[in-house]
Structure formats: structure tokens, C-alpha cells
Design brief:
eight-stranded parallel beta sheet; 262 residues; binds zinc ion; 8 strands; TIM Barrel; alpha/beta; 9 helices
């Protein structure tokens, strides 16, 4: 069984296939999956998906790329939704400085900190998006020593990976690790402590090889595990098992029946 810890199944690219796709995941060994929110609308749709499917769990949060859309009213709504029993995480939150011309760094930091405070208050882990902003991200994470979480789609260095693991954070690798030229990602995959590794698809984005450039779905998460296993000279089954256990631990998921979680 594979735990896909980062999916955007509310994306309109899944419009005509969502039901069918979700129905086939457990039978293909993909369960549970985390439905990750990125804005107001997806907070509600992630929770709805988690209510409809026992193997889907939800996050709520505001992505930094649209931090300018956030306001007190939306924050209050998000904080309320975060108490839902199937919400296991605050995310994806963080900093994204990739497009400097339309980036308001102070605004991004402000809402990142507010959402970190919420995670701290509710004892929930966080799913962190950090793009071209690692130093500032680390500085804010260090302000919250009680909060732990995952660096989603980790693209940083081996050195920073060690820093994060020391701080109790998990490192999630996705489709990028399957790309031939992803040298740094390969190094991280080889050396990240096995008890701090997670796998994800970030679907519909970043499909792994041999599907690069096409629509990504949770069905491809085994390809990520397979590549990591090859890099670590072990078998896919071991990576699947370890990363699933890590995810259950981080997101505090208690397995009751086969696909029943609370
Ligand atoms: Zn994402």
C-alpha cells in the first residue's frame, strides 16, 4: 500500500474522471491519500472528499502564491474547518518567491505565520510549500518548535534536508525524483533517513517518468517509490511500507478497518 501525501483532486483537470479515479485507488494499493487545500474553495472541497471517501484525509490552508486573497474572514473560516475530524493537517502553506514581480513577501510571511500559529494551537502538522524561499521558510519554522510537518515536493539541498530532519520535519519526494537530470533530488532520496521520508504525487502536476508532461494522478505514486528504491538499492515494497508508516505517524492517522481512519 502506498500513501500519497499530497494530491489536488479537486483540480478541474479531474472534472470528468474524479469519481472513477478515486474508486480505483484502494484496489490499486493507493490508500490513504491526503487531499491538500490551497485556497478557500479547495479547503471545502478537500473536506468534502474526505467525508465521501474513507481513505481520503484532508488539509486546510492558504497557499502563499495567492496570499493576497487571504483576509480575516477567510482565516476564521479556515480555523473553524480545521477542527473537522477528517482534517489532519494545515497546508499547503509557506512561501513562494518564484515570481518576484507579483510577490508581496511581507503578506506571504504574515499569513504563513498566522497559519503556523493555528497549527500550533490545534496540534496539527503542516504541509509546507517553499519555492525559492528556503532561508525565510526555515526562519519561520524555527519560530514554532512544537510544530512539525512535511516539506512538500522537497527541492532543496542535502544540507538543508539534514537541518529539516533535525527540526523533526519529514521530506516528501514526488515526480521530480524520477527525472533523469534531478541530481540533487537523487542525492536527497539516497540519504534522507528512512523514518523521515514521505512520497507524494502533487497531482495533477509533476507527473513522474514515463508520464512526464502529462496528467498526474495518485495511481503514479508507486513510480516515485520505485525510483527511490532503486536509488537506495532496496525494494519498492520497503519504501512503500516505511513511507506509509511515516505518514500515519506524522498525520496521526489511526487505522481501524481496512480503509477506515479516524
Ligand atoms: Zn500542492
Amino acid at each position: 500500500m502506498f500513501f500519497d501525501t499530497h494530491t489536488h483532486l479537486d483540480d478541474e483537470k479531474f472534472e470528468n474522471m474524479r469519481g472513477e479515479l478515486l474508486a480505483e485507488l484502494p484496489a490499486n494499493g493507493i490508500a490513504p491519500i491526503m487531499a491538500i487545500a490551497a485556497d478557500r474553495e479547495s479547503c471545502f472541497s478537500a473536506v468534502k472528499l474526505a467525508e465521501q471517501h474513507p481513505f481520503v484525509l484532508a488539509s486546510v490552508g492558504q497557499h502563499p502564491a495567492a496570499a493576497q486573497n487571504m483576509d480575516e474572514e477567510q482565516f476564521a473560516e479556515l480555523a473553524e474547518l480545521a477542527k473537522h475530524p477528517r482534517v489532519k493537517c494545515i497546508g499547503e502553506i509557506g512561501l513562494d518567491y518564484h515570481w518576484p514581480e507579483d510577490t508581496d513577501k511581507e503578506m506571504q510571511k504574515y499569513w504563513f505565520i498566522r497559519q503556523m500559529e493555528l497549527a500550533d494551537k490545534l496540534s496539527l502538522p503542516v504541509s509546507i510549500h517553499s519555492r525559492d524561499a528556503m532561508a525565510d521558510t526555515l526562519e519561520i519554522l524555527r519560530m514554532f518548535p512544537r510544530v512539525t510537518g512535511v516539506m512538500h515536493c522537497y527541492a532543496g539541498s542535502y544540507h538543508t534536508m539534514n537541518e529539516l530532519v533535525k527540526m523533526g520535519y519529514y521530506i516528501a519526494l514526488g515526480g521530480v525524483v524520477t527525472f533523469k537530470n534531478a541530481r540533487v533530488s537523487h542525492e536527497v532520496a539516497q540519504y534522507v533517513p528512512i523514518d523521515h521520508l514521505l512520497i507524494e504525487t502533487d497531482c495533477p502536476y509533476l507527473a513522474p517518468e514515463p508520464h512526464r508532461g502529462h496528467l498526474n494522478t495518485p495511481l503514479y505514486v508507486p513510480l516515485v517509490a520505485e525510483k527511490i528504491a532503486a536509488l537506495r538499492h532496496t525494494d519498492t515494497e520497503q519504501i512503500a511500507k516505511a513511507t506509509r508508516e511515516n505518514g500515519m505517524r506524522l498525520f496521526n492517522i489511526t487505522q481501524k478497518g481496512e480503509y477506515e481512519y479516524e
